[in-house]
Amino acid sequence: MEPPPGIDPTPGAAVAPPVDPRLLVRQEGLRGYLDEFKRKVRGGELGSLPVVIGLIVIWLIFSLKNSQYFTAANAEFIAYYMVGLGMLATGLVFVLLLGEIDLSVGSVSGLAAAIYAVLSVTHHWNAWLAVVITLLSGMVIGGLQGWIFAKIGVPAFVVTLAGFLAWQGVMLWLLGSTGTINLEPKALNALFSGNSFFLGGQIFGAYLLAIIATVGFGASLFLQQRRRKAAGVPSRPTGELIARTVLLAIPVFLVAWILNKATGVPNNLVIFLALLVICDFVLRRTTYGRKVFSVGGNIEASRRAGISVPMVRISVYAISGTFAALGGLAIAATTNAAGQAGADPNNLMMAIAAAVIGGTSLFGGRGRVWSALLGIMVIESINAGLFMLGLTLDIQYMITGGVLLAAVIVDSLSRRTQKSSGRA
Question: Which ranges does the record mark as transmembrane (predicted)?
């Protein structure tokens, strides 16, 4: 009988250290990575692959239909107008990770814009203080809805549907008979309008942001490698870390170059990407993030592991409310007014669609905050292309609905494949 792999039968021989099987593929070079990629696809672990392929197809179709689609001006248009709904979708990612839903984010975003307008314009409060109060209001509203769901036991669908109606009523009451309050160019415009933030309007500013993003990403990879080596656990080879950093740098600098050909990096895009980085770190690198995924994957197992499920639920809805308020401010900045359009039900539908299209599962336990960015890029790319072709709104809704259905079908098939391969 042969000894197990890694065990020398010679008496007194040292036992070879165990090797992490997940790292064996890296010893085979490029072929190993390709084999690992094929294994994941066959096992239903598609990740962001479907949405990336979808984006490429969308861009190619519209560029063939209209030569002006691949221009810096159109890229800046998409980047600027995707942020408001992207904020709503980011908050929804946290909720969807629990396998729940928040139908109130559209109304909360409109209410947030109304609160800011009343405080800063009607009552002449300091604009920055009004922004803080608005964000706190969104967090309290989300937390309250989460408390009713987690502590009283009312289904999240019912709680947030009631919020959808109630908060829209509060927004209309605050706006008064006119239904609109024009905003003054203060803190809100400084945050979410223009491109002067972080030298965004200058060539140097765009490339500086690209350098910070690339260096920060590379530094985090090497820091993780150093920690794993210090702990005596397998780590990625240095060559792979360099390759990953280069692969990120190429699209980042390409985007900076494209936006510089227009007017630079929009302020709201800088803030949006910074928040995505922070949220990604929270979900993937902190104990709280692991609790969110645990509760979304198996509630009973999370309870037995000592996780406070009610507190996770309440906090997730508070985060959703905060991002809804941020999205409301960003949307108001694009129109320079707080009005009834801020609580448009279509904003809710598009935000949910963005999170799901980007790869967040409706069944909970799987997804990343970058899903919000990818999903809203798909939606806004479609919107921009249809607008340039002069097609009507009904066509836009039909196409977006079809893309959403396709994303859910892919997610369902992926889960079925994972179950059949024993990876679910």
Answer: 46-65, 77-98, 127-149, 156-176, 196-221, 241-259, 265-283, 314-335, 347-365, 372-389, 395-413
Contact 336, 194 (CB under 8 A): no
Question: Can you tell me the distance from the alpha carbon of 346 to that of 282, in angstroms, rounded to the nearest whole number?
Answer: 29
* Strands of 255-364, DSSP E: 337-339
Q: Where are the domains of the chain?
A: 52-187+287-407, 195-265
Contacts of 110 (CB under 8 A, 6+ apart): 167, 168, 171, 328, 338, 340, 341, 342, 343, 344
Tokens of 65: 């239909």
One digit per residue, pLDDT tens: the chain, 424 residues? Answer: 455 555 555 555 454 454 454 554 555 556 666 666 666 666 656 667 778 888 888 888 888 888 888 888 888 888 888 999 999 999 999 999 998 999 999 999 999 999 999 998 888 888 889 999 999 999 999 999 999 999 999 999 999 999 999 999 999 999 887 778 888 766 676 677 666 555 544 556 678 888 888 888 888 888 888 888 888 877 778 888 888 899 888 988 888 888 888 777 787 888 898 899 999 999 988 999 999 999 988 898 899 988 999 999 999 999 999 999 999 999 888 888 888 776 677 888 889 888 888 888 887 778 889 888 988 988 888 888 888 888 777 777 788 788 778 777 776 777 676 666 555 5
Q: Give the integer Cα–Cα distance in Å for 162 and 215.
A: 46
Architecture of domain 52-187+287-407: Orthogonal Bundle (1.10)
CA distances from 235 to 21, 133, 267 (A): 12, 45, 37
Cα R_g (the chain), whole angstroms = 24
**Pick from 370, 356, 368: which is nearest to 400 by CA?**
356
Cβ atoms of 312 and 292 within 8 Å: the answer is yes
CB burial class (10 A; 0-12, 13-18, 19+) of residue 224? middle
* DSSP state, residue 25: G
Length of the chain: 424
Q: Hey, what amino acid is at 326?
A: L
> For residue 338, what are the β-bridge partners?
181
Instruction: Specify the DSSP element, H or E, that contains 191.
Output: helix 187-192
What is the rounded distance in angstroms from the CA atom of residue 185 to the CA atom of residue 189? 5
AA letter at 248: L
